């Protein structure tokens, strides 16, 4: 990947399109937003795959990321709390809980920050 400075932001090209990254929201995605997005979406995607492999019907899945940053340590991300809202039919709480645990062990983005960011996951089931 190559990133080129464009005055107010860095820019890179991917197959899907152009990505602009900046410390200022007016000029592009902020680096912490991209990191949190990567972890949240990777975790939710792995969870959906695990649930489907376990023959659970997932009609919709939303993940909310609550981010804690440490201002005294360069504003680093210190914690991310992911909360999944899962809609489907016949979803047993114990099975979903097991799927969440299994997904956490198999998300490469979450595993990358393991030990550096406190990552917690909760869920609720709606039908």
TrEMBL record:
EC number(s) per entry: 1.11.1.-
An example molecular function term from Gene Ontology annotations: peroxidase activity
Database matches in Gene3D superfamilies: 3.30.300.20
InterPro entries membership: KH_dom-like_a/b, OsmC/Ohr_fam, OsmC/Ohrsf
Keywords carried by this UniProt record: Oxidoreductase, Peroxidase
Pfam annotation, one family: OsmC
The name this protein goes by in its record: OsmC family protein
Species in which this protein is naturally found: Bacillus daqingensis
Taxonomic lineage from the root: Bacteria, Bacillati, Bacillota, Bacilli, Bacillales
């Amino acid at each position: 990947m190559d990133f080129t400075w464009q005055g107010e932001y860095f820019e890179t090209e991917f197959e899907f399109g152009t990505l602009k990254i900046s410390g200022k929201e007016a000029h592009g995605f902020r680096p912490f937003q991209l990191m949190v997005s990567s972890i949240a979406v990777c975790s939710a995607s792995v969870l959906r795959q695990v649930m489907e492999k376990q023959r659970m019907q997932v009609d919709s899945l939303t993940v909310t990321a609550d981010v804690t940053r440490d201002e005294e340590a360069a504003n680093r991300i210190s914690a991310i709390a992911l909360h999944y809202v899962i809609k489907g039919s016949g979803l047993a709480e114990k099975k979903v809980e097991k799927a969440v645990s299994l997904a956490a062990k198999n998300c490469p983005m979450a595993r990358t920050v393991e030990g550096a960011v406190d990552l917690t996951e909760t869920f609720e089931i709606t039908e």
